[in-house]
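Take a careful look at the protein record below. Let me know whether the structure tokens fit the sequence:
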Amino acid sequence: MKKLSLIFAIVFLSFGLYAQNKSGKLKVIDTDTIIEKTRQRGYFQKAYVDPGDPRFMMTNTNNTFQFGIGGIIHATSFFDFDGATLNKDFITWHIPVPTANTTHFGLDMGGTRLITKGVTKTKKHEIVAVLELNVFTGSNAVNIRNAYVSYAGFTIGRTYSFFTDLDAGPLTVDNQGPNTQISNRHPLIGYRGGIGKKIYWGAAVENPDLKMSNYDSINVDFQRVPDVAAFAQFHWKRGHVQLSQLFRCLSYLSLNTGAPVLNSYSDYEKNFVFGYGTALSGKVYMTKKFFFTYQLVLGRGISSYIQELAEAKLDLVTCMGSKEMKPLTTYGGYLAFQYEFTPTVTASMTFGSVAINRYSDENYFDVNIDNYKSSYYLAVSAFKEIFEHGLFGIEYLWGERKNVDEFDCVAKGRSNRIDLMMKYTF
């Protein structure tokens, strides 16, 4: 915590001193009065749970430098009934099977964010630096969500994967969102470009955390080859459609036959498994006030990119009694509708599902899968802007998890939840 505070102070002072050197004076401006293009430049991807640009920014007299601090104060209360997830986030992976016939109440501030942003004009482009923190109420008090620099289309740092389409993300009170949403963040180096005002594209090399099981003589290895993600997005008058592609090379270690356990690194055999993923997503306006968003995803060895399965270690699973690991096939999608009744009242409904293909050979049955086969998610939400930059939300959530064991026996667990949210953006 002290180190983060020191880093934050150094960044703040550095930007302040740079601005003073440029003009000798600083002034505070309200970004609500700046045109949208100026406010949004450089901050390319933003989920609905992320803060926007800081509402108040410091700028020098000739407006060649801007620096601001903003964020979200986000409080959520939840009540589980007729089945509980026993988790503050509504994650269908965590639904007990069979159904936990109990109630569960909680308060959470996990959606609280703090963002700092600096924009410096150069002769041709702007240099943009973004640092966004997530404030928790648990043992991990502060977590870095986004920390990157962008210039002339290039982005380097920790931010959302290029496999993601945040413009197609549904609006929910639940911070987690639908179970098949792609919204993970990790270090990357990428470039975004465009052709006119209708076609946008991008590609990046990325370094996510490896998420795979380990068993017996098999060990998780470090990332040897970066993931490669790319997208192409086409816009028209009523919305957009995006095609995203992901390529992975996953590596793991297996102990050579005859070598003693816990021997040196050279006694392990290096193995590589290739994975891939494809996603189709978009947003379509039926009228000015009514639109829907969607996403379909399919791939092998990409479970860690799916929000619901990110911590399940399902990219690779163990072949029991063998040195071999295999990638699981993951597929799913969501569909969300949103309608604006008035400028201050909005309602939405989101349905999602995600599943994995289990290997029929019982030798591939892995205890880390916990018999998981598929899950379903439903959210019905309503939002009211109660004052400027203040939002109230209420939501009904339903989820179901389906398990299938090695004998093809099916078991299910369900959960119901009511969420209430108060959010203030500054």
